[in-house]
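Protein Record: Sequence and Backbone Structure Tokens
======================================================

Structure line: whole-number tokens from a learned vocabulary of local backbone shapes, matched to residues.

Purpose: to set a sequence beside its fold so the mapping can be learned.

___
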Amino acid sequence: MTHSVVTATAAASPLRIAFVSSCSGEWGGSEELWSGTALLLARAGHTVRAFKTNVNANHPRLVALRVAGCPITDLTPAVTLRKRITNRLLPYRRQYTWRKISQQLLTRGLRALEPQLTVISQGSNYDGFVLADVCRSMGLPYVLLSQKAIDFFLPPDLERGLVQEIYRLAQRCYFVSRHNLELTELQLGMRLPEAEVVWNPYNVPFAGELAWPAPTATEVVQLACVARLHVPDKGQDLLLQVLAQPKWRQRAVHVTLFGDGPDEAAIQEMIAFLNLQDKVSFGGHTSDVAGIWRSHHALILPSRHEGLPLALVEAMLSGRPTIAANAGGIAELLTDEVTGFLAAAATVPALDEALERAWAARAAWPQLGAEAARQARASVPIDAPRLLAQKLLNLVAVSAS
């Protein structure tokens, strides 16, 4: 499907589509799909507008959107000193709050655009319901795109009915793994007949399987943990506890933590506390993902919660096996002892057991990596944003017919 996106010149008129991101940080892997889809539609001549929390105007993805003609509104409210003082004099329901101000900003923007469809992109499965409620209240058609689900994170008790209604009224509910879809149905206590699984884009070539790293004089096994530095989700603390065991201290293995995030200082202090400075280093955030896999032998993901991580897809396409906890949709793509090694849970004993099996079979890693690349190419689409763009255009066409 390389030329399937309907251009504005092929349609009766340009379509109006809004993208709303509730992701908490300035940027993350969970924003690649919506932004790539928005960019594709804007370049095709459609009228696209984006609304996002915590906007970094200089981020390359947002710069590209603006160049393509897609304006971006920051939904993170600035609660001025005057408003903070006023809040002290008002009952809670009349105070200036993040929720109220962001909803007002979004309402104003959507009223001006009058979108034929709005995409609510959530970092998790409930963090965007406040913004989706704007569409519901205005009677605007919308879809939900959820990038993660957490087993113990349910909708707020007092707003459970509202969240159920938001999911019920969505034209589509997109998830990035079957696990996330089914967990959300369980948590909401309702079937989602309009739900389906979509793929995220990735930052390595589709046919980008790399040569195995050349052996070094020290023969150290190089593992890469490519994940946001956020311990509650990504579980770097678990990995450090595994590596602190005497047997792993004695083995020729090194882990590089690639990524950035709010827990970098905490992880650095954990490394120092466990005296792992010779075992673990930081690689920072890099846009050269293929460069990681030219010098590393395998991916290790100790995640507690996931959608379906980009890092897994990218490692597999690059021809590298993965050692990972069974979180989110990881087991939907990773086959234990065929394309990598799957830990039964995100715990220190389970991760240690999987890493032990991987260590014993390390001579076979090149073959596992080759099979990982083959299975990834058989599973993931070449152009995920284009596929989602076509789904959105089809929804608008059906609604108009």
Q: What stands out?
A: The longest strand covers residues 16-21. Residues 16-201+383-400 form a domain with the Rossmann fold fold (CATH 3.40.50.2000). The mean pLDDT is 91.
